[in-house]
């Protein structure tokens, strides 16, 4: 099937939770009013049954597909969203919602606190994956959608998918958690904590009060560099960089000698231009608090009607396949309609953004079957 | 066999390389005079054929076994060195040599530069694993040892073992590289580079000129925290910490919530008290430059008479078993007497310091056979 580009898109802003209807957060505090940035692609059908909610990862945003005016590159999952693509906007109404706690247009630590008129900084309450999803539910309600055809996302987006299932199972028909986990493991917590320590060790961080002054760029760059190592695999690094040098010979200095060093420094430096350090702290903490193990996911005996497609990647060592297998085992024990697929990729955790052909194949069929009750694409083949 | 404690030991200092006999370094510069810290355990036999050289890892030192006055814990490989132990000091003369470039008594960036009377700091020349071994050869010569019974070490110690084989094959009878690699991979370089960036991002680092002022403690602590994650395995972290909390409930703050966070912060903070930040930069760089691939290890056609025992650990993802397999494959292709053993450990890279029972079993027999020409321990059994 041929695909077409989505063209120009725009970010919208949903405002909600005004006093006295602030949102009650898991930490016990209240927050409001709130703004949630989101984008939509395609059109909602008459019976509002074709809506798919896309959820993004740690550093993602609501701009999942198409172009903003002046942009050279499209949204972060453009290869998956558009006419004829995995999330086919000729058929489906695709919504991508940002998370609260971030810095991409939704309320977060860099937003102005209504009572002081200054950025919240660390006065911003701690948020959880549960809080992010609660806010998204307000958005979906406001769009008049009673039941989502699908919730889909990778990494932290996958955690939001699982939280949607936990909190609002009657409001979704299917769920596609990709390269994710039922709970953050100590190793995953450890990597996040080191990233946070790198930010907080930067004197410019100044206990979070750096707005209007210099931001903790060097600390955040180090945090991001750590992240990038964990997103790739030993093998993909070998394939991409091996021991290739930037110059002809070793510098015998602390300059970047190897291409992999130059790459990491570049990725670290470019990240600080687009991301708020406090948002990084809040979002990584939300991930670390995430734990739907021990019956918290779907309580024993609870009947839910959600179809699942669980996807993992062989070389992903940050969210290893065994964590997706734990999800599928849990679903199977509860007698749910669930399919597991482990894609043979060498890309590591980044694979969920890169293994487009495999993902498209799996997701397209799964969505067709969920939407029509049978596999349209497969029918075509026959 | 029963083992006995080694008791009190002392560090010795070997001085060499005085003008005009400075050491020529790989970077092209010369360095001298130099000091090399080392310890010895047991006694050299009459024909000087029972000497074993132990080589340490990144943050190690010459104090491998026994106690210094006032110490509560013994040297870093005490469980392996002593009467009746794997490196049996009733039979063997065990030498542990520190590396140049470090901060544990040997000449390094924190040493005083003879011409200025101030610490070298970044005026210290870049050193390599080859330079470290070259310096050790002076030490072994000074002890009157023509041929070492064995060179043994894990991690960076293993790199020195391989470099000893490359540079001085006629001066060693056997080699035991543990949890190491023929070359540093881009992932290994990447982790080191992020650690260096964390140090250099700390304003206290001050381009290396922090001596007598405050050292870059926060940056070095972050570097060490990254290191500790890579030394453990996902599984060993799960077994040691799981998601256990320090307090009863989530703090909903940026304090340490999880035991794993407290552990990492503790390990980071204690490291900065015992290690020099510039030394960390120099030694990690030496590791990154290490590359004996592509025929540099043992040139085609060169006959060497060295026996090998190559040891790797199943859960070690920092120096994965495939890297040890590359070493053994190379040795076998060259027709050398080489044994490979992959120990089923969950400890990750740390296993070389922890899997004492397995290592003792393997190494004791291997040394016996090297020393006597047959396996004494096995004879006893028969």
Could you characterize what this model shows?
The structure is a homodimer of 382-residue chains. With 382 residues, the first copy, chain A, is an alpha/beta fold. Chain A has two domains: 12-182 and 293-381, 3-Layer(aba) Sandwich (Rossmann fold), CATH 3.40.50; 188-286, Rna Polymerase Sigma Factor, Chain: A, CATH 1.10.1740. Chain A has eleven helices and twelve strands. Chain A has helices at 129-142, 156-167, 186-201, 217-231, 234-240, 259-274, 277-289, 321-333, 351-354, 356-372, 376-381; strands at residues 12-16, 23-24, 30-31, 34-41, 51-55, 81-82, 87-88, 93-97, 150-154, 174-178, 307-313, 338-343. Chain A has an eight-stranded mixed beta sheet, with helices on both faces. Chain A has a two-stranded antiparallel ribbon with strand order 2-3. The model of chain A has no long low-confidence stretch (mean pLDDT 96). Chains A and B meet through helix 3, helix 4, helix 5, helix 6 and helix 7 of A and helix 3, helix 4, helix 5, helix 6 and helix 7 of B.
Mean pLDDT of chain A: 96
Strand residues, percent of chain A: 5-15%
Are there runs of chain A of 5+ residues with pLDDT below 50, and where? none
- Report the top-level CATH class of the largest domain in chain A: Alpha Beta
Radius of gyration computed on alpha carbons of chain A: 21 Å
* Biggest sheet record of chain A: 8 strands, mixed
Number of E-type strands of chain A: 12
| Oligomeric state of shown chains | homodimer
- The CATH superfamily of the largest domain in chain A appears as Alpha/Beta hydrolase fold, catalytic domain
């Amino acid at each position: 099937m041929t695909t077409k580009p989505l063209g120009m898109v725009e970010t919208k802003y949903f405002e909600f939770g005004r006093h006295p209807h602030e949102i009650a957060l898991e930490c016990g505090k209240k927050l409001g009013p709130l703004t949630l940035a989101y984008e939509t692609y395609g059109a909602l059908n008459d019976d509002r049954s074709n809506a798919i909610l896309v959820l993004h990862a740690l550093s993602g945003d609501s701009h999942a597909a198409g172009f903003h005016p002046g942009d050279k590159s499209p949204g972060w999952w453009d290869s998956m969203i558009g006419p004829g693509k995995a999330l086919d906007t000729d058929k489906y109404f695709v919504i991508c919602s940002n998370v609260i706690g971030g810095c991409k247009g939704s309320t977060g630590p860099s937003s102005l606190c209504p009572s002081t008129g200054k950025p919240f900084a660390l006065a911003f309450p701690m948020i959880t994956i549960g809080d992010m999803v609660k806010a998204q539910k307000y958005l979906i309600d406001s769009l008049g959608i009673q039941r989502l055809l699908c919730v889909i996302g990778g990494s932290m987006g996958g955690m939001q998918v699982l939280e949607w299932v936990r909190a609002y199972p009657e409001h979704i028909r299917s769920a596609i958690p990709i390269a994710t986990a039922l709970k953050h493991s100590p190793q995953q917590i450890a990597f996040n904590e080191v990233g946070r320590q790198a930010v907080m060790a930067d004197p410019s961080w100044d206990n979070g009060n750096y707005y209007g002054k210099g931001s903790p760029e060097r600390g955040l760059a180090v945090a991001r560099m750590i992240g990038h190592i964990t997103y790739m695999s030993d093998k993909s690094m070998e394939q991409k960089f091996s021991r290739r040098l930037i110059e002809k010979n070793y510098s015998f200095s602390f300059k970047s000698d190897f291409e992999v060093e130059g790459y990491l420094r570049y990725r670290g430096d470019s990240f600080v231009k687009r991301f708020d350090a406090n948002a990084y702290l809040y979002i990584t903490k939300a991930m670390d608090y995430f734990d739907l193990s021990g019956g918290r996911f779907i309580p024993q005996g609870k009947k839910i009607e959600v179809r699942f497609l669980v996807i993992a990647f062989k070389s992903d060592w940050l969210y290893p396949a065994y964590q997706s297998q734990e999800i599928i085992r849990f679903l199977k024990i509860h007698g749910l309609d669930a399919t597991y697929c482990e894609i043979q990729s060498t890309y590591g955790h980044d694979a969920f953004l890169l293994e487009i052909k495999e993902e498209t194949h799996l997701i397209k069929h799964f969505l067709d079957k969920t939407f029509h009750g049978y596999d349209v694409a497969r029918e075509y083949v026959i």
